[in-house]
Design goal:
By secondary structure, this protein is an all-alpha fold. It has a domain of about 45 residues. Helices cover about 55% and strands about 0% of the residues. The protein has 7 helices and no strands. The longest helix is centred in the middle third of the chain and has 22 residues. It is elongated and about 85 Å long.
Amino acid sequence: MTHPPERPKDDAWIDQMLDDLAQDPVGEVPEALMARVLADADAMLPAPGGVVAPVPWWRQIVDGIGGWNTVGGLAVAAATGFVIGIGGIEAVPFEDFLSVNYDTYYEGQDAVSVFGWDIEEG
């Protein structure tokens, strides 16, 4: 097992290191290294005259609304709204939805009990 080199207990070595860095913050890059880096960068460029692949319409929509996380959130919200909406119909007879006087059915009733959200104990 190797041990790290011993460091002084005080923080004077940090101040000395920062002072040395402030004197020469950027070292000189050798010309050979710079030439190799630029040659590698040129090799990564696409060939001239290339054609950009078209982006499918569905991917444009997904990217436009915020990505796949947003699509998942919208799907969950739609499914939840559908289930809550169907669950609220249970306590109301179908004929009352077709009637013109829809508001009179709910007159004097609590909204929680109208949609069947109250808990019956017994």
